[in-house]
Design a protein that fits this description.
six-stranded mixed sheet, binds adenosine-5'-triphosphate, OB fold (Dihydrolipoamide Acetyltransferase, E2P), alpha+beta, ion transport, ATP hydrolysis activity, Rossmann fold, ABC_transporter-like_ATP-bd, 358 residues
C-alpha cells in the first residue's frame, strides 16, 4: 500500500531572529539557528520554558519580525529571508493569541466577521455564525465577548482566525488563561476542528499536556534552539537529551552500569537495553526511570517510604525513598491512598530504558 505523504507546508531553514539590546548598537539573538518542517494538515507544537524564544518564532512566521539569517518558506514560496519580509496580510496565516484579542465593542459575530471584510456584510455575518456553530457556540453571535466565559471567548478567537480559511494557523499559548481541566478539553476539541478542516497549525506552549493533547509533532526548544522534534510518544519514551527527559514527563535519573546483554544494572535489578543505546560494558550511566516505570505492588518485597504525594484525579504521584536513600517517582491509582512516612511495596516495569552517559 502506498501512503501519500502530504507536501511540506512550512519550512524554517536555520533561522536566526533577534532584537536590539538595551545598550546602543547591541543585539540579542533570541532564535539561534532553528530548523523545522511541517507538512500540510499536521499540527506542530513548539514546547519550551518561558523566554526560550517560542513566540518570536511565531512572530517571524507571521511576518511581524524580520529574520537576520536563514529562510522561511510557505509552500515553497520564500516569505522571509534576510532580504525579504513578505507583509503579514499576504501570507494567508491566521493567528490566535493567549489574550483572545477580541474587540469588546463588537458582537461575537462581528468579531468573527472582522477577517471577512472582502465579503458583503450580510454574507460575512452568516459565515461568522456558521463558524461560531462549528466551534460549539450556538446563539451567541449577537452577544458581546464580555458576556462569555474565558473558554467561550477563546473559541470566538479561534472562529475569527479560522473564518478566513488561513492555510496555516498559528496559536500562541491560546489556553494559558483557562483553568487546567478546560485547557486540555479545549485543546482536544480544537485539534478535532483543525483536523476536520485539514488546517496546518503550529502552537507554542510551555505546557506539555496541552502539547500532547493537540499536536502530532512536538519540538522542544531551549535557549532559541530546537533540541528534539518528534512525536509525543518518542519525546516521553526516547528523549534525546537529559533536558528533554527532565522537561517532558515525570521521572528521575538513577545511577547504573552497563552490562553485556545488552543490559544495565541498577539498584533495583538488571534491565534490558536496546542495542542502539548501548556502548561498552562497564560504563557508568544515568538511567531514566519514569513515574509509570515504577509500579505499586503490595506483595513486592521491595519497600519504599512515601515522602510526598500529589493527587491527580485518577492517580497519586508519589515520591518514594529506597533504603539506600535513592528517590523515585511512582504513579499509583488513587484508591491506593497511603500516608506520608508509610512503606509501600514497589516494583519496576520499565519498557523503554533510556540511559545517558555520565
Ligand atoms: N520586542 C522585543 N524586544 C526585545 N526583546 C524581546 C522582544 N520580544 C521578546 N524579547 C525577548 O526575547 C526572548 C524570547 O522571548 P519570547 O517571547 O519569544 O519567548 P517565549 O518562549 O515565547 O516566552 P513566554 O513563554 O514567556 O512567552 C525574551 O528574553 C524576551 O525578553
Amino acid at each position: 500500500m502506498i501512503i501519500d505523504t502530504p507536501p511540506i507546508h512550512l519550512n524554517l531553514k536555520d533561522i536566526h531572529v533577534g532584537y536590539p539590546g538595551e545598550k546602543s548598537g547591541s543585539w540579542n539573538e533570541v532564535v539561534q539557528g532553528l530548523t523545522m518542517q511541517l507538512r500540510h494538515g499536521r499540527i506542530g507544537c513548539l514546547l519550551g520554558p518561558s523566554g526560550c524564544g517560542k513566540s518570536t518564532v511565531l512572530r517571524a512566521i507571521c511576518g511581524f519580525e524580520p529574520i537576520q539569517a536563514g529562510e522561511i518558506t510557505l509552500d515553497k514560496q520564500v516569505v522571509s529571508s534576510p532580504d525579504t519580509t513578505l507583509a503579514p496580510e499576504k501570507r494567508r496565516v491566521g493567528v490566535v493569541f493567549q489574550d483572545y484579542a477580541l474587540f469588546p465593542h463588537l458582537t461575537n459575530a462581528q468579531n468573527v466577521a472582522f477577517g471577512l471584510r472582502d465579503l458583503p456584510k450580510k454574507e460575512a455575518l452568516l459565515k461568522a455564525e456558521e463558524w461560531l456553530e462549528r466551534v460549539g457556540l450556538k446563539n451567541v453571535g449577537s452577544r458581546y465577548p464580555h458576556e462569555l466565559s474565558g473558554g467561550q471567548q477563546q473559541r470566538v478567537a479561534l472562529a475569527r482566525a479560522m473564518a478566513p480559511e488561513p492555510e496555516l494557523l498559528l496559536l500562541d499559548e491560546p489556553f494559558s488563561n483557562l483553568d487546567v481541566d478546560l485547557r486540555e478539553r479545549l485543546a482536544g476539541e480544537i485539534r478535532d476542528i483543525l483536523k476536520a478542516n485539514g488546517t496546518t497549525a503550529l502552537l507554542v506552549t510551555h505546557d506539555q499536556f496541552e502539547a500532547f493533547a493537540i499536536a502530532d509533532d512536538i519540538g522542544v526548544m531551549v535557549d532559541g534552539r530546537l533540541v528534539q522534534w518528534d512525536s509525543a510518544y518518542n519525546l516521553y519514551h526516547r528523549p534525546a537529551s537529559r533536558f528533554v527527559a527532565s522537561f517532558v514527563g515525570y521521572g528521575v535519573f538513577v545511577p547504573g552500569v552497563t552490562r553485556p546483554g545488552p543490559a544495565v544494572e541498577i539498584e533495583l535489578g538488571t534491565l534490558p537495553l536496546p542495542q542502539s543505546s548501548y556502548g561498552l560494558p562497564g560504563e557508568e550511566v544515568d538511567v531514566l526511570l519514569r513515574a509509570d516505570d515504577i509500579v505499586h505492588d503490595d506483595d513486592s518485597p521491595l519497600q519504599a517510604e512515601v515522602l510526598t504525594k500529589a493527587f491527580r484525579g485518577g492517580d497519586f504521584l508519589y515520591t518514594v525513598k529506597l533504603d539506600s536513600g535513592q528517590e523515585l517517582l511512582t504513579m499509583v491509582p488513587s484508591h491506593h491512598d497511603h500516608a506520608i512516612g508509610e512503606k509501600i511495596g514497589i516494583k519496576i516495569v520499565a519498557d523503554h530504558v533510556v540511559t545517558f552517559s555520565k
